[in-house]
UniProtKB/TrEMBL annotation, chains A, B:
Alphabetical UniProt keywords: Amino-acid biosynthesis, Branched-chain amino acid biosynthesis, Cytoplasm, Leucine biosynthesis, Magnesium, Manganese, Metal-binding, NAD, Oxidoreductase
Pfam families: Iso_dh
Gene that encodes it: leuB
UniProt EC number: 1.1.1.85
Binding, substrate: R96, R106, R134, D224
Protein name as catalogued: 3-isopropylmalate dehydrogenase
Gene Ontology cellular component list: cytosol
Assembly, per entry: Homodimer.
InterPro entries for this protein: IsoCit/isopropylmalate_DH_CS, IsoPropMal-DH-like_dom, Isopropylmalate_DH
Species whose genome carries this gene: Marinomonas aquimarina
SUPFAM superfamilies: Isocitrate/Isopropylmalate dehydrogenase-like
Length: 357, 357
C-alpha cells in the first residue's frame, strides 16, 4: 500500500533545504522499497503571493489526505506588513490547527561532533539530550476573543486570550509521559501557576495524569526559573512539557544551547500519530537563495517522519547514521563550522548524505 | 527634609539579605548625612501568616507614604497550596499595581571578577551589560477576565487575558528610550507580532514613540528569537523592552547568563520616579535561614534606590565601589564561588562591605 507524503517547501531557505531532504527521501524510498509517493504544494508567503492565501484550500485538502507532511519554513520580512489573517505564519498555524497536530516534539541534542559550536561551556552541555513537548493547537496562539479594539476614550487596546481546557491539557500530558517512558522517565511541567489561573489548571491536570504513569517522575517548575535553569544546568531535564507560548520560547532557547539549531528536527503529531515534520529553525530570509543553508535539520525531519508516521524505522536509522557519518567526515555548513574552517554548500551537504547512505 | 524608606524583608532568604542591606544603608545614611528614616512592614507569606493577607492595609499605607521601598523576596513552598488571591506573590503584585510601578529595570551585567561563574564561554559574555526594561503593571499579569470556569460539558477551562492599551505601551516605551539615552542608544523591542494582536499594537506604538528619540535606534525582535539570541550572542543588545510576561522570562534568562544572579539589583519605578528596589533573584527557600545567601544584590539595590529615588548619588557610588572592592578581595558567598574555593556567610559579606565603605 502506497504512503502519501505532502511536501511544503514554504519560504526563505525552505525550498533549498527541502530539495535536499526530498533527494534523501527518494533514495531511501527506492533502496528500502517503501512505496512512498510525494507531491508538493504551496504554503506561507509563497502561497499568498500566488493565490492570495497563505493556506490555499487545495493545500489543506492534500494535507488532510497525506500520511505525513514535510515542511521547510514560512515567513519573511517581505510579508511583514500584511494583515495578520493572511501572513505566512497563518498558513503554518492553519495546518497545525486544522490537522489537530497538538503534540509538538522538539529535541534539543548536542551532537558530539559539534560540541564547539555551543556558546555554553563544554561541561554544561556535553551530552545534552532534552525533549521539549509543546502544546501546539491551543493556548494564547488560538484563544478567543482576540484583536485590537478602540476604547471609549478613543485609545486602542490589543488583547489576546490564554486558555486551556482539561482535555487539551490531558492529551498533551499523555504525550509527554509516553515520550518520557521511552527516555529517562522524568517529566518537568512548566507553568506560571503563581500568577496565571490557566496554568493552575495545567499543573493540576498534569498531577492527575501522572497517576496513570507511576513509573514516570513528575516535577513542576515556573517558566522564569525554567529559562534560568536551561542556561545554568540544562542537563537536569529529560522531558519538559508546556503550553504553546512558553514552549515557543523555551524550545528555541533549548535548541540554541546546543549550538546546532541547524541540526534539529521536530515533529507535530495528532491523536492518530499522523504528523508534520519540519526543522526547528526558521526561514532565515537573510541567507535564502544563497545555497549556504544547512539542510540537515530537514533531512533529520525526514528520518523522524519515517519513524513516527511511515512505519519505516530502518530507513530512519539509515538516514541518521548517514548524517552522523558526514559530521564525522568533518563536513560543515556555515552555521555549524568553527571560525575560519572550510564550509560546504546546501547541495554539497545533500550530496554527502546521499553518498553516505 | 527627612526621606522615608519602607523596608519589606518578605520571605525565605529575604530577612537575612535585607538585614545586611539595612546595615549598609544605615552606614551611608550617617556618613553622608542623608537624613533617611526607615521602618519595616510585613509582605508576602510572612504577612499572610500573621494577618491573613499577603499585603496588609497597614503595609500598603506605609508603602504609599514612603519615598522608596526596599524589598527582599516573597514566596515559598509553604504557601503553594493557598488560593491565588492570598498567595505571597499577590503581595508583591499588589504593591506593583497599587503604586503604579510600571517600569521595571533589570540590568544583566557580568562582573569581571566573576566571569568564571557564567555557564557561557568567556568570549560570549565578557563585558556583558544589558538592561531589560519590563512593563510591570499590565499585560497578562493583570488582564481581565481571568479565572477557571466550568464549561457546559462539565469540564473546566482556565483563562487569562493578555492586554495592553496605547498609554501603557507609550509610557514604558519612553522609559526604555530614556534609559537607552544614558547608555548605548539602542532599544530592541521584543514582541510576538506574527501571532499576537496585542503585540502588533505594542510594535506600532514603539515605532511611534521612537520618533521622539531620533538619537536612539529602535529594532524589533520576536520573543522566541530573542530567547535564542540571548544564548547565542547576548552582547548584541543594549536595552531590551518588553511586556510583563516576556520580560519575566527573558530577564531571568539574561540575569543567569552572567552567572551572578545573586549580584543583580532591580528597580521598579512609577511616573514620578518613586520606586521599589529588590534583588533580581527570588526567595530561595531551600537555603533560607542558613546564613549562606548572597546579600550583594540587595545591597546593590540600596545603591540603586539612593541614586534613582533618594537623590544621593555619592552614597550610591560609595556602595558600588565597596562591593567592587570586596569582590576584588576575593570574598565569595557560595552562589558565586568557584568549585571548591572558600566561601563567606551572609553576615560576613555584609561585614566586608561595611568595612570597605
Ligand atoms: C512561525 C511561528 C508562527 C512559529 C510559532 O510561533 O509557533 C515558530 O516560531 C515556531 O516555533 O514554529
Ligand atoms: C514572584 C513573581 C510573582 C514575580 C513575577 O513573576 O513577576 C517574580 O518572578 C519576578 O520576576 O519578580
Amino acid at each position: 500500500m502506497s504512503k502519501k507524503v505532502l511536501v511544503l517547501p514554504g519560504d526563505g531557505i525552505g525550498p533549498e533545504i527541502v530539495e535536499q531532504a526530498v533527494r534523501v527521501l527518494d533514495a531511501v524510498n527506492s533502496s528500502f522499497d517503501l512505496g512512498i509517493e510525494h507531491e508538493s504544494a504551496l504554503v506561507g508567503g509563497s502561497a499568498y503571493d500566488e493565490t492570495g492565501s497563505p493556506l490555499p484550500e487545495t493545500t489543506l485538502t492534500k494535507a488532510k489526505a497525506a500520511d505525513a507532511i514535510l515542511l521547510g519554513a514560512v515567513g519573511g520580512p517581505k510579508w511583514d506588513g500584511l494583515d495578520m489573517s493572511v501572513r505566512p505564519e497563518k498558513g503554518l498555524l492553519g495546518l497545525r490547527s486544522n490537522l489537530e497536530l497538538f503534540a509538538n516534539l522538539r529535541p534539543a541534542i548536542l551532537y558530539p561532533q559539534l560540541a564547539e559550536a555551543s556558546s555554553l561551556k563544554p561541561e554544561i552541555v556535553a551530552g545534552l539530550d532534552i525533549l521539549i513537548v509543546r502544546e501546539l493547537t491551543g493556548g494564547i496562539y488560538f484563544g478567543q476573543p482576540r484583536g485590537i479594539r478602540t476604547l471609549e476614550n478613543g485609545e486602542r487596546e490589543g488583547f489576546n486570550t490564554y486558555v486551556y481546557n482539561e482535555s487539551e491539557i490531558r492529551r498533551i500530558a499523555r504525550s509527554a509521559f509516553e515520550a518520557a517512558r521511552q527516555r529517562n522517565k522524568r517529566v518537568c511541567s512548566i507553568d506560571k501557576s503563581n500568577v496565571l489561573e490557566v496554568t493552575v489548571l495545567w499543573k493540576e491536570i498534569m498531577e492527575e495524569v501522572s497517576k496513570e504513569y507511576p513509573d514516570v517522575e513528575l516535577s513542576h517548575m515556573l517558566v522564569d526559573n525554567a529559562a534560568m535553569q536551561l542556561v545554568r544546568a540544562p542537563k537536569q531535564f529529560d522531558v519538559m512539557v508546556t503550553g504553546n507560548m512558553f514552549g515557543d520560547i523555551l524550545s528555541d532557547a533549548a535548541a540554541m544551547l546546543t549550538g546546532s539549531i541547524g541540526m534539529l528536527p521536530s515533529a507535530s503529531l495528532n491523536a492518530e500519530g499522523r504528523g508534520m515534520y519540519e526543522p526547528c529553525h526558521g526561514s532565515a530570509p537573510d541567507i535564502a537563495g544563497k545555497g549556504v543553508a544547512n539542510p540537515l535539520a530537514t533531512i533529520l525531519s525526514v528520518a523522524m517522519m519515517l519513524r513516527y508516521s511511515l512505519d519505516a524505522k530502518d530507513a530512519a536509522d539509515a538516514i541518521e547514521a548517514a548524517v552522523s557519518k558526514v559530521l564525522d567526515q568533518g563536513l560543515r555548513t556555515a552555521d555549524i563550522a568553527s571560525q575560519g574552517s572550510e564550509t560546504v554548500s546546501t547541495s554539497q551537504m545533500g550530496d554527502a548524505v546521499l553518498a553516505a547512505l
